[in-house]
Specification:
Layout: E1 6-9, H1 19-35, E2 38-41, H2 53-66, H3 89-101, E3 105-108, E4 111-114, E5 124-126, E6 130-132, E7 150-153, H4 161-171, E8 176-180, H5 187-196, E9 203-207, E10 210-211, H6 227-232, H7 237-245, H8 260-266, E11 277-278, H9 281-294, H10 297-310, H11 315-322, H12 324-333, H13 341-347, H14 349-352, H15 355-360, H16 368-379, H17 386-398, H18 405-417, H19 425-432, H20 434-443
Parallel strand pairs: 1-2, 8-9, 10-11
Antiparallel strand pairs: 3-4, 4-7, 5-6
Helix pairs in contact: 1-8, 4-5, 7-9, 10-12, 10-13, 11-12, 17-19
Bound molecules: glutamic acid.
Length: about 450
């Protein structure tokens, strides 16, 4: 534990929170929470043309959906604000003037340029990538031997990323800079600016690249890239969190399913691997299924309901007539079926309404005569409960030469659910109740 740890997530509000951003935010959150330190949200909105307040909002609500709460930020305030770069322009100007007056920067028109000197060792130790050796002489103009100086203030008066990030990380007392590996190449330039201002350099930890299954950098081609697309597909925030945490890190002991707090407790920055992490949908599905199983019934119901409603099912009516618990119990029967909330909702729609069943099955392929006898016997049972019904069915089948349980159970399953697979069909029948089952079988002329 090190309560002095201060980390930040510094998104540019030029798009929704995507997988890469969510991943970076999450690792910062884990490190802050593991240490009892602080997690800061800083909005890097100096690209005025592309930054919007709407994107800033979506990024924040995406983080909130993932359960990543921050301690300081534009909405929360804090001792180191403002937390939006567009509101810190005076600060950037002040330090640029200082660099100018010390001859470490020069003007080029309206722009201010930082001078890169020969022979500077700007190597650094990255917590994840290890030693990165760089000399300032490597920072060359394209196709030339001339060193490339660093623009710090552009002619429109806005600071550049490499400059503003140094000023802010220093003034905000950031101890650990945790960000995507695409920033490794920027780090030496930032180190030069820290030194010129006489400031200590924070620790750097760059996170591995995330690849699609084809081992190419994750992009839109691989499917959903924004965090919200996963919410809309029915993935739980706990699962997406769990899944993202495993991209480049492991909790040890093959522990694959964990809560946020468990992850925060176990997290170690030094155990993050530099090996590119592969985004594997099968893994996400597995994790989500495991989290769905672990939910308490009411929470699970609340998660499934929106998907039933979206499918146009009369959820409110059923809730009124049967009660909330009845719907929650139906989902408990479904346990382990469906990898996402949407799948679980789709697979269990027949509990909410008979209508989708009719759309899936028309009974034209069955011998109604033969089945009617069986169903009449079933409905003659005094106790309409799964164990009793099952025993009655087995007795009846075994008393008939050559008859198989499947020949009778399958049409029952189709008539009640319209599906080839479902939980134990007698359990489904018991839960639907005698009256509803009768209604469905009569509709098909099976009773
Ligand atoms: N705004 C930068 C980005 O979104 C922040 C990078 C950093 O964390 O230094 O890539």
């Amino acid at each position: 534990m090190n309560r002095n740890i201060r980390v930040r997530f510094a998104p540019s509000p030029t798009g929704a929170l995507h997988i890469g951003g969510g991943h970076t935010a999450l690792f910062n959150w884990l490190w802050a929470r593991h240490n009892g330190g602080k997690f800061i949200l800083r909005i890097e909105d100096t690209d005025l043309a592309r930054s919007t307040k709407e994107y800033e909002q979506t990024i924040m609500s995406g983080m909130t959906w993932l359960g990543l709460d921050w301690d300081e930020g534009p909405d929360k305030g804090g001792d180191y604000g403002p937390y939006r770069q567009s509101e810190r322009l005076d600060i950037y100007r002040e330090y640029a003037e200082k660099l100018l007056s010390e001859g470490k920067a020069y003007r080029d028109g309206e722009a201010i340029i930082f001078r890169v000197e020969h022979g500077q060792d700007i190597s650094f130790d990255d917590t994840v990538y290890g030693r990165i050796d760089v000399m300032s002489d490597g920072l060359k103009e394209k196709d030339s031997d001339k060193l490339k100086d660093i623009v710090i203030i552009k002619s429109d008066g806005m600071p550049t990323y490499n400059y503003a990030v140094v000023i802010d990380d220093h003034l905000m007392n950031i101890t650990d800079v945790i960000r995507g590996e695409d920033h490794i190449s920027n780090t030496p330039k930032q180190i030069l600016i820290y030194r010129a201002l006489g400031w200590d350099v924070p620790k750097f930890a760059h996170l591995p690249m995330i690849l699609g299954r084809d081992k190419k950098k994750l992009s839109k081609r691989h499917g959903a890239t924004s965090i919200y697309e996963y919410r809309d597909m029915g993935y739980m925030p706990d699962s997406v969190f769990n899944f993202l945490a495993l991209l480049g890190w492991s909790a040890g002991d093959d522990k694959e399913i964990f809560t946020r707090n468990e992850a925060a407790e176990l997290f170690e920055l030094s155990r993050v691997t530099r090996r590119p992490a592969v985004f594997d949908f099968d893994k996400l599905n597995y994790i989500n299924q495991e989290h769905l199983k672990r939910l308490d019934p009411m929470t699970r119901l609340n998660m499934i309901k929106p998907f039933w409603l979206e499918a146009g099912l009369p959820v409110d009516e059923v809730e009124k007539s049967r009660g909330e618990n009845w719907l929650a119990e139906a989902l408990t029967l479904m346990e382990g079926r469906g990898r996402t909330a949407k799948e679980m909702a789709d697979f269990s729609d027949y509990f909410v309404s008979f209508e989708p069943v009719k759309k899936r099955w028309d009974a034209s392929d069955v011998d109604k005569e033969k089945l009617r006898e069986f169903f009449t016997m079933i409905f003659a049972q005094p106790v309409f409960k799964a164990p009793e019904l099952e025993i009655a069915a087995r007795d009846w089948v075994s008393a008939r030469e050559g008859a198989k349980m499947k020949e009778y159970a399958m049409p029952l399953r189709f008539a009640l659910t319209g599906m080839k697979v479902s939980p134990g069909i007698f359990e489904v029948a018991e839960h639907l109740g005698r009256e509803e089952c009768e209604k469905r079988l009569k509709f098909y002329g099976l009773l």
